[in-house]
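USER:
Make up one protein:

ASSISTANT:
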Amino acid sequence: MPDLMGKNVSEVYKTTNGFQFSGVEIDDLEASEYTLGNILVDETGSVSGFEQELEKCIIAAVDACQKSPHSENLLMRVGKFGSHIPGSVEELHGFNLLSNLDTKDYNGKINPCGSTPLLDATLDSLETLEAQAKILVDQEYLCNGIFFIITDGGENSSQSASFKKIKNAFARIKKEEKLESIRSILVGVDDTQCKADLDDFKNQCGIDEYISMGNVTPGKLAKLAQWVSQSVSSTSQALGSGGPSQPVAAPSFTI
């Protein structure tokens, strides 16, 4: 699984349920604590027509994170998901320092095809945060995490995950205390027809928040990008201030 934007990226790792991810070399980390950010974007056929807007949203979010006062304490992973991708999720890059990322490399990376393995994307988001945190905590770093799943449709094609596995992953993360806190957010774009399904999905998985954006517009996605950055920054700011595996309140999102 190549890392498309991978300066100083180590070997590929596997999670409990076999999801793959990559991460920055430990020797390249200079801080003592890190917030892990995980952004997975729907690449299924139904996003055709606004794939460039989604790419611009990623670019704006990462660019804003790079300008954050906490940027040196952030490790960002960005990927895409769809039934046409082996394992359901493909990294654009693994957990990497923001200084290693060039936002121009996100252009042309969303190529719509296939259907929506939303359970797989959710479990991948959880378990990759968990596994990367374990690698860091075992080296005496302090970690917390936040993930975003951006989709325009409901679950219809997962191969590995289930609601039970996702609930078990949340419980395991809280019990093992590798992450001081974790925040999980499902974002529905162009989701007018599936809003009820996505809200039910959020509840069944135990995801913290579902953001419904309705019809896609460049303005809404620009606001989403800024909100993602603010949420990551607030999560980073909270690192070291609370007990293990506690929720962190994200800024409110308004369209």
